[in-house]
Specification:
Oligomer: single chain
Shape: flat
Helix content: 25-40%
Number of strands: 0
Distance between the termini: 12 Å
Strand content: under 5%
Number of helices: 2
Order of helices and strands: HH
């Protein structure tokens, strides 16, 4: 993933939004392909972390960036 390109493109898309609803829709569209569990909203969301946690995590390693 070219994060610099994504940031430039994403910024361009965000600047085109005219209101909060368009901003939320744009952010969800931008991040859905790369982070499908991320949800942008203007209201509090109930989130079940177990829905994205693999059943067996013994072979997984933490990733940071």
């Amino acid at each position: 993933m070219d994060w610099n390109q994504f940031a430039a493109y994403g910024s361009e898309q965000v600047l085109k939004t005219k209101n909060k609803a368009e901003l939320i829709k744009t952010l969800n569209r931008l991040f859905q392909p790369i982070a499908p569990s991320v949800v942008f909203s203007d209201s509090k969301q109930v989130y079940d972390l177990s829905s994205i946690t693999p059943k067996d995590t013994s072979d997984l390693q933490n990733t940071f960036w």
